[in-house]
């Protein structure tokens, strides 16, 4: 178990419940605002935060991210009280997925291994065989297909379409999208690329639409893109377009202030692609969560946690053995 910077608090009242928050650990995703990241003990991508939550020796985990992330923390560390600062912090990949329809779809492919992206509810995870994040999805699916398995992929249609295109798979895909990344637009991107007088580059998150991903020099998770920027050795005068949520531009700018980093354009021509759910993590909401207020992830039964934990643990075990 890893010991981390912990804040000692008193017992607090949350509605009718008293919550003991003796040791509070705050986690923040890269898409949260800089001031939230500065309040956190750990900032990272979905995989890093899941691993950290699993190992955290804490009474309370405040998860400045979105609900499926807080649920994953609870699934991996059921003894901890996990609090999401704002109950409205959902994700379109979750809200666009009807669980009854998903189960029908899953049942209609009995000979397939169901791989689900971590951006899914606990119920969704329980209907899958493997969970993946954008960091390990390529490796895990290549591993399964290498073993001769048939794979079906949910819920992100863009990510699945990219994997099918890139590796020549024919995975059946569920059809939900990230409402933020789905707005990146090929025509607007070409216009922006053409308007740059010198050289330019494009890096992208795999939740973006396929025509955009086809043009990217690098496709990967938030931390993958951050590492690409950190290790960039090309001309610092080149423009680097980044097709992902705007929060990560803060981390990229901190790491490489010498580079011309710009958000890739969306169809309306706006340069701001912000996740409304991540941005619900305001300073006040996170402070209140550190005092025990917010959405406490206490609604998952031990059976629901166990059913969702198996495919998540399979991923963590794979990551330990092959990639991390
Ligand atoms: P990462 O797994 O790359 O952190 O992405 C999570 C996410 O929600 C992207 O929109
Ligand atoms: Fe979900 Fe998209 Fe927001 Fe990520 S950026 S949490 S995928 S809505």
What labels describe this entry?
5-stranded mixed β-sheet; binds 1,3-dihydroxyacetonephosphate; iron-sulfur; binds iron/sulfur cluster; 14 helices; Rossmann fold; globular; pyridine nucleotide biosynthesis; alpha/beta; 4-stranded parallel β-sheet; single chain; 324 residues; disordered N terminus
Concise synopsis of the structure shown:
The protein has helices at 34-39, 46-55, 67-76, 92-95, 99-107, 122-126, 137-146, 157-167, 186-195, 210-213, 222-230, 248-255, 283-290, 302-323; strands spanning 11-14, 17-20, 24-29, 42-44, 60-64, 81-84, 112-117, 130-132, 150-154, 200-204, 218-219, 239-243, 260-263, 295-296.
Can you characterise this structure?
The chain has 324 residues and is an alpha/beta fold. Helices cover 39% and strands 18% of the residues. Among the domains are: 2-92 and 278-300, Rossmann fold; 181-263, NadA-like (Rossmann fold), CATH 3.40.50.10800. Strand 5, helix 3 and strand 6 form a beta-alpha-beta unit. The protein is globular. The structure holds 1,3-dihydroxyacetonephosphate (13P) and iron/sulfur cluster. 1,3-dihydroxyacetonephosphate is lined by residues 45-46, 119, 133-134, 178, 205, 207, 221-222, 245. One of its GO terms (molecular function) is quinolinate synthetase A activity.
């Amino acid at each position: 178990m890893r010991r981390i910077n912990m804040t000692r608090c008193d017992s607090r009242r949350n509605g009718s419940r008293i919550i003991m928050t003796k040791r509070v650990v705050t986690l923040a995703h890269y898409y949260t605002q800089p001031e939230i990241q500065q309040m956190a003990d750990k900032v990272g991508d979905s995989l890093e935060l899941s691993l950290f939550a699993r190992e955290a020796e804490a009474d309370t985990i405040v998860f400045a991210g979105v609900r499926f992330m807080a649920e994953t923390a609870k699934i991996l560390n059921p003894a901890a009280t996990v609090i999401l600062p704002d109950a409205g912090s959902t994700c379109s990949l979750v809200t666009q997925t009807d669980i009854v329809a998903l189960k029908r779809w899953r049942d209609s492919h009995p000979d397939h291994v169901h791989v689900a992206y971590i951006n899914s509810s606990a119920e969704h995870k329980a209907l899958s065989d493997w969970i993946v994040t954008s960091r390990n999805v390529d490796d895990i699916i290549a591993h399964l297909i290498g073993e001769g398995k048939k794979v079906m992929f949910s819920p992100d249609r863009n990510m699945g379409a990219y994997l099918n295109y890139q590796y020549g798979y024919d995975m059946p895909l569920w059809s939900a999208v990230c409402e933020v990344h789905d707005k990146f637009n090929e025509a607007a991107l070409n216009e922006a690329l053409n308007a740059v007088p010198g050289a330019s580059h494009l890096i992208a998150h795999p939740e973006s639409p396929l025509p955009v991903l086809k043009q990217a020099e690098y496709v990967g998770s938030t931390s993958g893109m951050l590492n690409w920027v950190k290790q960039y050795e090309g001309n610092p005068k080149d423009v680097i377009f980044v097709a992902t949520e705007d929060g990560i531009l803060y981390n990229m700018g901190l790491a490489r202030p010498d580079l011309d980093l710009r958000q890739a354009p969306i169809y309306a021509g706006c340069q701001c692609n912000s996740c409304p759910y991540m941005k619900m993590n305001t300073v006040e909401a996170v402070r209140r969560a550190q005092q025990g207020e917010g959405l406490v992830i206490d609604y998952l039964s031990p059976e629901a946690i166990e059913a969702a934990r198996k495919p998540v643990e399979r991923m963590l075990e794979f990551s330990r053995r092959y990639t991390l």
